């Protein structure tokens, strides 16, 4: 293996670690993106941006008004409305497969696996595409 090839692999590994640490995406997925787009760094950046993890709170603020049009959104600094919280818990529980009490804990600071944020980003992209196509 030549010196140039080795340097390129080290640089790619450093870039991979940097991306994985800042975005918290699975290492295998980051490697896959880097391999598939190694000749086009612009595409890499677009893909990493598209899969930016999304918190349950962010997801609910965007999609609960769309999925449940009659639900009132919470105001900054105020407690969430009961109907809003129930809609979030039911919807996220259905989408993720987690129990509603587990999902409720996410809103009160309980930790959850980073894959939940990636899954919510994927649902966000799918719903956005679906709206665009309709």
Overview of this structure, please?
The model is unreliable at 17-21 (pLDDT under 50). The protein has seven helices and no strands. It is globular. 72% of the residues lie in helices and 0% in strands. The chain starts with a helix and ends with a helix. It is mainly α.
A few lines on this structure:
The protein is mostly helical and 134 residues long. It is 72% helix and 0% strand.
Secondary-structure blueprint of this entry?
Elements: H1 3-23, H2 27-36, H3 41-50, H4 56-67, H5 82-96, H6 100-107, H7 114-133
Helix pairs in contact: 1-2, 5-6
Shape: globular
Measured by DSSP, the beta-strand proportion falls in under 5%
The overall average pLDDT, rounded, is 79
Assembly state: single chain
């Amino acid at each position: 293996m030549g010196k140039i090839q080795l340097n390129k692999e080290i640089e790619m590994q450093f870039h991979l670690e940097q991306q994985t640490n800042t975005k918290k995406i699975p290492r295998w997925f980051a490697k896959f993106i880097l391999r598939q787009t190694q000749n086009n760094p612009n595409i890499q950046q677009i893909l990493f941006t598209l899969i930016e993890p999304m918190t349950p709170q962010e997801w609910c603020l965007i999609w609960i008004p769309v999925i449940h049009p009659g639900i009132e959104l919470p105001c900054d600094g105020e407690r969430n409305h009961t109907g809003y919280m129930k809609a979030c818990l039911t919807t996220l529980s259905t989408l993720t497969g987690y129990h509603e009490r587990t999902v409720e804990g996410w809103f009160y600071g309980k930790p959850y696996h980073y894959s939940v944020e990636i899954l919510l980003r994927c649902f966000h992209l799918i719903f956005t595409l679906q709206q665009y196509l309709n």
